[in-house]
Write a structure and sequence with these properties.
9-stranded mixed sheet; about 35% strand
Amino acid sequence: MKRIFFIVWIMTCLGAVYGQNSEFVLGKQQFTLLLHDSSENDTERQTLSVFRQDEDRPLLVSLLREIWGDSNSLSVMVGDYDISDSTLVLYHFWTKNGDAPVSPYGARIQVYGIDASENLVLKDSRLYIETMSDSYILQSMGKEDIGYHKGCLYLHHSPENATEEHDLDAYLSGVEEEYNGKFVFGEEADMLLDKVRKRLAPALKEYDYEKCDIKMRKMPDNLIYNVKKQTHEKNLIF
């Protein structure tokens, strides 16, 4: 435990503000959960770290809050967690307040548990995320390379040729890799977004989420065909 307090002291010296320390048990293992806040330039963060009891190295580090921008345009990511006897569940929601065309919009639920070797592992992770606005993507075409993000267009408009289908597939793969989860569509996306919105309602209200000019954009029905369907399971673990 002394080593853990030493880590917190180091974080404080580096600019992080110690927030909360708690202990919990999953399976037969006891863990310590640390929350700490930090601020740098125009960005505020809260980070969650999980340690096995009496160990220095974190098993899990995840941002629970990241707010950046100015009074006219805020990019917002808020999160929280639930702990049961067998799982640690992380909730994240990305949105914006104002004009922030490259700010992501979406939600993710990650479920951590204990495997047969008593290790903390990611059991399930589902997400729906739009990384850029359609208008920004269209304005950027031919002017700058925005990488896989251009495929975000085809969450809302059916691809009309092999190139556009490739862009959509690249987008899904890119988001899954960057945000560490499986992309879900249609009713599953609705369920995910609704569940996370409700779970994080107080935090979202703090940033005037209801005033944001974001609207949920659904994948057209004819797109829920073969878009990585072989790798996307249908049952969410909630």
